[in-house]
């Protein structure tokens, strides 16, 4: 089976409300830097090292709040803050340069190569908001294709 079908992503509310259609036996892997207790209860494990770093999250949250104070709805404030802090580029750089993030990516990649089915899980519903989880999924698929 090619690696793509074994790697999925979803968000915690979809799991809690039984809205995530995942293959049986899929390991639920949280990719959250600051998980709550109830988040831990929804996933099998968490890899905080592949989540966005604290400095990026702090910058993002500050901008998101500022955009919300200007009257943007939650989704618009989220996406505007994403652009304002250059979230995508900074997160990609984190995955490529941080040794803990690189180790976490390598571990997940090795698990996929061994045939394990994984679902990356965080808080964001990507129907309305951009999310690092989908970027991580693409990064993992790229590293698998590159043979890293």
From TrEMBL:
Pfam families: DUF488-N3a. Residues 18-142 form the DUF488 domain. InterPro entries: DUF488-N3a (IPR054495). This is DUF488 family protein. It comes from Salinirubrum litoreum.
